[in-house]
Write a structure and sequence with these properties.
With about 270 residues, the chain is mainly α. The chain contains 14 helices and no strands. It has one domain: Serine Threonine Protein Phosphatase 5, Tetratricopeptide repeat. The protein is about 75% helix and about 0% strand.
């Protein structure tokens, strides 16, 4: 299990892990003179001066989300994660489409030992990331890795196997584009690992649709038609009673529709 966790993080790091400072620095708004003074102070290494400037700005305009973001960055630079957290929360609620910042917020909650809130944030990021026109796979791998670790800490065997399996599945999708990767980190090897984890999740909760949906995806990529279709049918039957993300619901519906069309064509 620890080996699989290392693989997940290895894949995430290989795909690119932007630093918090890089994500926080450029706010979405026209820069204000006072905020520019704060940025200049940070560049000079005067963190306390920058914090004082940002607090002064927020005293005049408490709703300025970009200044909340800048203040969060300065507080994190100082090492005060607890004070930074509510300011980062204001920003992500104002700009929920900035998924990298939302992931940093979820990571901050995780580091502050607030697993229930972190879990909720990571789950929301997963759902929104899947709805992107081109989902960023490293974001999904990072979120599922954290969700796996939270489940493991809570003694949730189902969640641990589910999120490990989904994370390894996404890593396999990326590995598939690298033809020179062999052995256990090859796409096929990772897909087999994902199938084992997802099958274990299904054993833990046989009525859940989510493991079966991803087993369908895994077996389809492995060109194993019979287990793929069997899991698709099970997922479709369970879906009305289970929690799936909008993208998972949509993918399941389209796959089922395609299967129905192919069956009708044969008859």
């Amino acid at each position: 299990m620890r080996r699989l966790r290392r693989w997940l993080w290895f894949g995430y790091l290989c795909l690119g892990c932007p630093s918090l400072a890089a994500q926080v620095s450029p706010p979405i708004a026209e820069p204000r003179p006072v905020r520019e003074k704060g940025q200049a102070a940070l560049k000079r290494g005067n963190v306390d001066e920058a914090i004082a400037i940002y607090k002064q700005t927020l005293a005049a305009d408490p709703q300025d989300a970009c200044t909340h973001l800048s203040l969060a960055a300065a507080l994190l630079e100082k090492g005060d994660a607890r004070a930074a957290c509510p300011h980062l929360a204001v920003y992500v609620r104002t700009y929920p489409d900035r998924l990298p910042i939302r992931i940093h917020y979820a990571e901050l909650l995780y580091r502050l030992h607030r697993p229930k809130e972190a879990k909720k944030e990571f789950e929301h990021v997963v759902a929104d990331a899947q709805n992107e026109e081109t989902p960023v796979v490293n974001q999904l791998i990072q979120c599922h890795t954290r969700l796996m670790e939270i489940a493991e800490a809570e003694g949730d065997d189902y969640g641990e196997h589910l999120h490990r399996g989904i994370g390894v599945y996404y890593l396999a999708c990326e590995r598939a584009a690298l033809s020179d990767v062999q052995g256990k980190l090859s796409a096929e090897g990772l897909l087999c690992q994902a199938a084992g984890e997802l099958a274990q999740a299904r054993l833990e909760r046989p009525d859940e649709a989510r493991p079966c949906w991803y087993l369908y995806e895994v077996w389809t990529r492995l060109d194993q038609q019979y287990p793929a279709l069997r899991n698709l049918r099970i997922a479709a039957a369970a879906a009305p009673f289970c929690k799936l993300t909008p993208a998972e619901h949509r993918g399941l519906y389209m796959a089922s529709l395609k299967l129905t069309g192919e069956t009708d064509a044969r008859h």
